[in-house]
Design brief:
single chain, 134 residues, mainly alpha, Four Helix Bundle (Hemerythrin (Met), subunit A)
Amino acid sequence: MSATIIALAGYIGWTILLTLVLIGYRSVIVAKGQKAANEFSASGDDVTALGLRLTRAQANCIESFPIVGGTLLLSLAIEQQALTDSLALAVFAARLAQSCVHILSTAVIAVQLRLAFFLVQLGICLYWLTLFIL
């Protein structure tokens, strides 16, 4: 299996895992009678700080998928995974790191780290798109 496929499957799996953790987190709140299942804000601003960070990390994975996942899918569709294989695991690692930092903290340094990890992903995808065009 190519690194491109592993990175794509990893990204999808990571997003699913974050979604399941978020479901579990909210289910505990509902089970404790603290909220009804239909009372959660989509933004996550109506729960604890951890709940908010988890909500945003999960949403961020979904929001970024068209860029990273889309570029990986494009490479497979145009049979150019040889161009993406060398950095595919790096882009996936940056995605994981961005999510983990997002969940752990909203301190200024953490926000700056998240941006750095996002810029790594964005830069790699722009690099790949340039290679596809050339």
